[in-house]
Amino acid sequence: MRSDEKNGRRIVRERSGGDCEARIQGICTGRAESVHHRKNRSQGGSWAPSNLLHLCGDGVRGCHGWITEHPAASYANGWAVRGCWNPEWIDVHLGREVVRLDDAGNYQRRQEEG
Ligand SMILES: [Zn+2]
Question: How far is ligand 1, taken at its centre, from the CA of residue 9, in Å?
Answer without folding.
Answer: 17
